[in-house]
Amino acid sequence: MSNSFAIAGVTAVLQYYLGQALGSFPPGAPAVSAVAPDIIQQQFIGSDVPSQVNLFLHQVTYNPGWRNQCFPSVAADGRTRLSNPPLALDLHYLLTVYASEDYHAEALLGISVQLLHQNPVLARTDITIALDNLDPTNDLASTLASCALPQQIEQMKITPATLGREEMAWLWTALKADYRPTFPFLVSVVLIQPELMASSGPPVLTRIVDVQPNFLASFPHLTQVDPPGGQSAATLGDSVTVEGTQLTGTQTVLLSTALQSVQQTIPIAGAGDASFKFTIPNPAPPPPGGDPTDLPAGVYVLAATVKTASDTLATNSVPMTLAPKITSVIPATMASGTSVTVTVTCAPFVRASQQVSLLIGGQQAPVDTFSKATNTPSFTFKPLLPTSGPVPVWLRVDGVDSQIVDTSGPTPKYSGPLTQVT
Questions:
Q1: Max alpha carbon distance in the chain (Å)?
Q2: Could you tell me the pLDDT band of residue 213, with boundaries at 50, 70 and 90?
Q3: What is the mean pLDDT of residues 99-122?
Q4: Which helix (H) or strand (E) holds 76?
Q5: 334 contacts 365 by C-beta, under 8 angstroms
Q6: pTM for this one?
Q7: What Å distances lie between residue 78 and 60, 73, 113, 288, 322, CA to CA?
Q8: Across-strand partners of 94?
């Protein structure tokens, strides 16, 4: 595949062969340039316009046929590169002729258009010859010679393009140059592919195919995660139940969240066929100034590895929510005011990249600015209004709320913490 200099390489190849075709022009070989028309117009002095042919790349678009090839390029984590899909581009050119003598512009246009008509495909050998014989005084000559344009998998084709009068008038108005005889055409396709490191699995040595007369999945499959107490989210230290099928032999659970770039593997013992349990780690707080090792609150994906008789399999992923928890005692009453700061202690530590807020009843305040992970965030309410009675207080981290509802009884009820703003 070509590199990022391929676009310039196409222009250089076209310029080279136009120069070759126009070299035998009877009045003398005209200049062949590849700059914007307004730059050429600045060189004009009165009516003295030298004979010249100019190539101008006025638009670059995605090639629709190649646009969705070779996807996906990254793994499910959004970071691991699996492949380097090519950037497929179509190049839209204007070929414009300049002359001050009668018939010269038309003659130059005829020779140039005939060259493009007779060479609808840029052959690989022709591209190589052109790139190897560029003007050595150009600073990019040696770089373009190694742009790998001849080696790209698809050859480049030249096709005429049609621009209506309004489109042509708008284009030349935008160029801020006087209109000259112009032939629009398209070069397709240029494939630019980066050479970046990518990950790829090893080849499969043995294929094992089992057929079982069973409506249930014949491979380990997770269906749901059940936090304790019927809650919608788990907290640090909770024993969580995972349900599924064919889970006997589960060895580990992987918890990961792309939002905080966190992954943690937890060993499993005693898994049954339909479920297993694991405990969310609840490490001790770090020493002052240290970095916390607990899992941040948020939404995770959970997957497991299962050891079978012949292989170790990875299951599908299911979502699991880890909720924050207020660990400090909330006073039974709080004083209202135009600017009230409330500090709570929480677990896990909140990170500076997380969105954190505290809610007192229906009143919500964002966290005060902090730069390092902390378990004592503060919140300033502007203002904090009185409430008619005790209202729940809860913490919200990355859209996940701390648990304030007791679901163990026949009907849900607020379990605290509660406070009244007076």
A1: 100
A2: low
A3: 93
A4: none
A5: no
A6: 0.59
A7: 28, 9, 47, 34, 21
A8: 56, 184
For range 120-145, the mean pLDDT: 92
Judge whether residue 377 has pLDDT over 90. yes
Between CA 44 and CA 33 the distance in angstroms is 15
d(CA 120, CA 151): 18
pLDDT digits (tens, 9 = 90+) for 18-73: 999 998 888 888 999 999 998 888 877 666 678 899 999 999 999 998 887 776 67
**37 burial class (0-12, 13-18, 19+ CB within 10 angstroms)?**
buried
CA 169 from chain center: how many Å?
A: 38
For residue 351, the Cα-to-chain-centroid distance in whole angstroms is 23
Sketch the domain layout of the chain as residue ranges: 6-192, 221-322, 325-421
Going by C-alpha positions, the residue among 196, 192, 208, 197 that lies closest to residue 90 is 192
379 closest CA partner among 407, 360, 406, 400: 360
pLDDT for 343: 95
- Would you tell me how many other CB atoms lie within 10 Å of the CB of residue 97? 24
Q: How do beta strands 333-334 and 418-421 pair?
A: parallel
- Beta carbons within 8 Å of 419's beta carbon, 6+ residues apart: 330, 331, 332, 333, 334, 360, 390, 391, 393
- Same topology, domains 221-322 and 325-421? Answer is yes
- Cα separation, 8 vs 131, in Å, equals 11
**Where does 221-322 sit in CATH, by number?**
2.60.40.10
Q: How far apart are CA 344 and CA 74, in angstroms?
A: 40
CA–chain centroid gap for 200, Å, is 19
pLDDT above 70 (res 288) = yes
The architecture in CATH of the region 325-421 reads: Sandwich (2.60)
| CA pair distance 334, 297, nearest whole angstrom | 27
How many residues are present in the chain? 422
